[in-house]
Amino acid sequence: GQQVMQIPQYQHVQEGEDFTTYCNSSTTLSNIQWYKQRPGGHPVFLIQLVKSGEVKKQKRLTFQFGEAKKNSSLHITATQTTDVGTYFCAGRRTGGFKTIFGAGTRLFVKA
Amino acid sequence: DTEVTQTPKHLVMGMTNKKSLKCEQHMGHRAMYWYKQKAKKPPELMFVYSYEKLSINESVPSRFSPECPNSSLLNLHLHALQPEDSALYLCASSQGSPGTPRQSGANVLTFGAGSRLTVL
């Protein structure tokens, strides 16, 4: 079945450092979504990528979708304490009907 | 209104109890979902309702029984649960059904705050 792997499992950074999480799928994806879940909170949608090689930016966040549509990354520039939380990628395989979540990357930011 | 509302926020129940979790959205979304999330794990899909009909059941045990009374409401009836069923239960909705074309944002999930369930 479809699997979506996400690394690293967690990362500790000093405030101001950059952070990247990577997502890889065993199958070609029709789209990939990214969600953020704050501690004690619920997943909140950040962005959706659909096109091969797509790059989107939201302020300090940069999202990429690989050329083969099997991998994606989220990069945060100059992390802030408000970036703390778990970042999930979620993909739907081509022709599929279910959105499968990656395991998530927990980000810890030290002030 | 861009929210998904879940009640109760917290629920403690015994293994012989019957209880229900409720979810409501007024965004006109056509698909509603139940996810189960254990600590430090991703949300795990349980059920999907599309246009008020059950379209996906991820082989969930029958002690969990979903119900969709109308397009705005989604319930999850709980009976004879086990301690390992303790988790955060998340309701979500999306504008379109899971089969909606990929280019649209129609399958973006809007989650509720969740119901934290403890089974004793």
Residue fraction in strands of chain A: over 45%
Portion of residues in helices of chain A?
Answer: under 10%
- Give the largest chain-chain interface (CB within 8 Å): A-B, 23 and 23 residues
State the separation between the terminal residues of chain B, measured CA to CA: 36 Å
Give an overview in words.
The complex is a heterodimer of chains A (111) and B (120). Chain A is mostly beta strands and 111 residues long. In chain A, 0% of the residues lie in helices and 57% in strands. Chain A contains no helices and eleven strands. In chain A, the strands form two sheets. In chain A, strands 2, 4, 5, 9, 10 and 11 form a six-stranded mixed beta sheet that branches. In chain A, strands 1-3-8-7-6 form a five-stranded antiparallel beta sheet, with no helix packed on it. The mean pLDDT of chain A is 95. Chain B is an all-beta fold and 120 residues long. Helix content of chain B is 0%, strand content 53%. In chain B, strands 2, 4, 5, 6, 9, 10 and 11 form a seven-stranded mixed beta sheet that branches. In chain B, strands 1-3-8-7 form a four-stranded antiparallel beta sheet, with no helix packed on it. Chain B is globular, with a radius of gyration of 14 Å. The model of chain B has no long low-confidence stretch (mean pLDDT 92).
